[in-house]
Amino acid sequence: MTCNILILGGTADARQLAEQLADMPGLSTTVSLAGRTARPRQLPGQVRVGGFGGAEGLARYLVEHRIDILVDATHPFAAGISTNAVAAAERASVPLVTLTRPQWERVAGDRWLDARGVAHAASLLGSEPSTVFLAIGRQEVAPFTDYARHRYIVRSVDPVPADELPSGSTVILDRGPFDMEAEKRLFETHGVDVVVSKNSGGSATYGKIAAARALQLPVVMIARPPHISLGKPAVNVEAAMLRIRHLAGLPIERGE
One GO BP annotation here (predicted)? Predict the structure, then answer.
C-alpha cells in the first residue's frame, strides 16, 4: 500500500526532504508551494501551487487526497501556514511532522539589535542616514519606505513592486546560498553600514551574519513569530526523515 505524503514547502529543507523521499519505494510525495516565488527551484515528485483556503481547506485536501502524513517544512516566519497545518492535521486525524530549523544565536563579536517585527526593525535604523542591506523577502520591504533618509540595498529572489521600494533603492536579484566571503565583498562594494535580517536559521543565508560580524557591522535581527506544532519539531531533514519512516512503517536503518 502506498503512503501518501504532503509536504508544505518553499524552503531548502523541504526540497532536500522531497529529494530523499523521491527514491523511496512505497511513498508518493506531493510538495505544496504557496506560489509567492515566480521562479521556484525544480522539485521531484508531484508539485501543487497555491493556497488551500485556510485550515478547513487544508483538512479537506488531506481527506480527499488520502494523505497519510502531513509535513510542515515551511519558512520559520510562515506562522499562519503552520497554525493552519496543526488545525488541519487535528481535524483530518493525520499525523503532522514539523520541520523547524533552530534559530541563529549570538556569538562573540556579533552586534545585534533585537527587533520584534519588520516595522520595529525599520524604526531601529536610527536618525543618521545609513546604507542598509535588506534581505528579508520582497513582501516585507514596504515598511522601510517610511524611513527614506537611508539608502537601501535590497536583495530578493523576485522583483519587488516599485511602489513598495524605498526611493533610490539598489535591487539585487539573486538566490542563495551565500557564503561569508561573497557577502563581505558585497557589503564592501556597496558601503553597507547596517544589515537587516530575519532570524531564519540554517546555513544557506548565514553568510551575511558572519560577514557582518567580520566587518563589525550591526545587524537588526528580526525575531521569529510564535510557532506552534504537534509535538516537538524536527530540527533538521535527517530528524524529519526518521519520523516519516517510523510513521510510514518503513525500516529504520542502523545508526538512525
Answer: cobalamin biosynthetic process
Domain 112-222 sits in CATH 3.40.50.720:
yes
Q: With beta carbons less than 8 A apart as the criterion, state whether 225 and 232 touch.
A: no
Between CA 256 and CA 254 the distance in angstroms is: 6
- Whose cell is 534581505? That residue is 135
User: Residue 168 is which amino acid?
Assistant: G
Q: How high is the mean pLDDT in each 10-residue block of the chain (256 residues)? A: 92 91 90 72 81 95 97 92 95 96 96 96 95 92 94 93 91 91 97 97 93 98 86 92 92 60
Residue located via cell numbers 556569538: 107
User: 0.90 exceeded by the pTM?
Assistant: no
Pairing verdict, β 170-173 and 112-115: unpaired
**3-class SS at 243?**
helix
Using DSSP, state whether 72 is helix, strand or coil. Answer: strand
Homologous superfamily of domain range 3-102+226-247: NAD(P)-binding Rossmann-like Domain (3.40.50.720)
